[in-house]
Write a structure and sequence with these properties.
Mean pLDDT of chain A: 92
Strand order of the largest sheet of chain A: 5-8-2-1-11-13-14-12
CATH superfamily of chain A: Acetylglutamate kinase-like
Low-confidence stretches of chain A: none
Oligomer: homodimer
Order of helices and strands of chain A: EHHEHEEHEEEHEEEHEEHHEHE
Number of strands of chain A: 14
Helix content of chain A: 25-40%
Number of domains of chain A: 1
Strand content of chain A: 15-25%
Radius of gyration of chain A: 18 Å
CATH architecture of chain A: 3-Layer(aba) Sandwich
């Protein structure tokens, strides 16, 4: 099977023009089929602030009301997505910006929760792998914004890490998929404040140990923001994805060769 | 050659949810290959107002400064484009939302003018007809936002009528193209205030007569907003487009069959 890289770029990088630019240069230089999934960054929150739209949060999750969804669609699927695509084109990487509605790329449904109404938050039902394959076969790199749609034409706000994981899983029936999560840190860190404390290889047992340390006083070593990303990573490995790596966006080339970042592995 | 419909939908329809919805139902029901080009509507102006971004106008044209371009990209290529695509998907019309940067669909350059700096306004260099054909051959309907890009990755604000005209011309080497401009009026009107005064057939001579009436007191009969659209229409006919029709968005089905609207023709 042909190798396919599914690469997620996080919000903090998107907010930093210089970092984004060096990342995109590295990304454009990758030979072979690849898919980019991008997060949101602070621009949507800033925009909501300027427009006096109050951001509701429940348990650290933003509640996507109609006005927030509008801003997310504008900023993520419009401003950020199209600027990344234009920049990649200038770097001779033929790309195509997509949200879940485009080509029915990602079908989702409004989140169902017994107690909390998350508003227009989408949970993924399916990824249209044959459509993404068509893009790749025509030498186009899909650039995917974290906005999906349900079958009734309702756009939905969807977590970009989850999108990257679901795309990696769906594509693993057609390609040998490597999933790479890039962000502002050098990898999964033992000590959040020490960028040199990168865990080189993280297997399921070690992850469980770090998540549930024997002594409570030690606290949870893995910083909270990493947990959904790592859960996505292990779920991807369990569903046919060949390899998952986590590391710094500006070190993408080293993440691909495996010389930097954290390798997530199902095997000890 | 296979027939292809290139259909432009104007801004005023986009602002009206009910009219947009009936238009999209008619559009989705069309058999065979089709491309939709959409304008902007008032949302970008409203958004600029709320964000206190002053809109500069020269000779009735908006000057696209960096902040205005940001809003246009968000609203046109994000909010409007993705909502149209999601709605079309729910109507079982497999569509894909594009700006000029996506798949290098439309290459443009920043407008060059001896006296006026139009800012980030784009004039079209070329349309990537083979990319659009790839979409159509894969049974995807391109939905195109009025945002293009130059070869250096700079997004540019571009007139939607011009985009529709240029796409129609470029595709006429591959398809038998019919170009349809839809808007809020029933066609090209002899009397702007009388929606029943539709000119059924407008040829070049008649157009020149209406543009330059013999008696000055009569004024220009064709309302000013129509002139760029009609100039685009005649230019398209001169470059291989088979037929151009102008009429009301909610009468799209009748425009296609030729029972309503104005037929623009090079022959008397």
């Amino acid at each position: 099977m042909v190798e396919l890289l599914v690469i997620k770029i996080g919000g903090n990088i998107i907010d930093d023009e210089a970092k984004l630019s060096s990342f995109l240069k590295l990304f454009a230089a990758i030979d072979g089929p690849k898919i980019l999934v991008h997060g949101g960054g602070k621009l949507a929150t800033q925009m909501a602030g300027k427009l006096n739209i109050h951001q509701k949060m429940v348990d650290g999750r933003r509640i996507t009301d109609a006005e927030t969804l509008k801003i997310i669609t504008m900023v993520y699927a419009g401003y950020i997505n199209k600027n990344i695509v234009a920049k990649l084109q200038s770097l001779h990487c033929n790309s195509i910006g997509l949200c879940g509605a485009d080509g029915n790329a990602i079908l989702a449904h409004k989140r169902i929760h017994p107690d909390i109404d998350y508003g227009f938050a989408g949970d993924i039902d399916s990824v249209n792998s044959s459509f993404l394959k068509t893009c790749l076969s025509n030498e186009m790199t899909p650039v995917i914004a974290p906005v999906t749609a349900d079958k009734n034409g309702q756009l939905l706000n969807t977590n970009a890490d989850t999108i990257a994981g679901e795309i990696a899983k769906a594509m693993s029936f057609l390609y040998e998929v490597e999933l790479i999560f890039t962000f502002e840190k050098s990898g999964v860190l033992l000590d959040v404040n020490d960028d040199s404390s990168v865990i080189k290889r993280l297997d399921k047992n070690y992850y469980e140990q770090l998540k549930h340390p024997p002594s409570v006083s030690e606290g949870t070593k893995i910083f909270a923001g990493m947990i959904p990303k790592l859960d996505n990573a292990f779920a991807a490995l369990n569903s046919g994805v060949k390899q998952v790596r986590i590391g710094k966006a500006e070190e993408l080339d080293h993440l691909i060769t495996g010389t930097k970042g954290t390798l997530i592995s199902n095997e000890p």
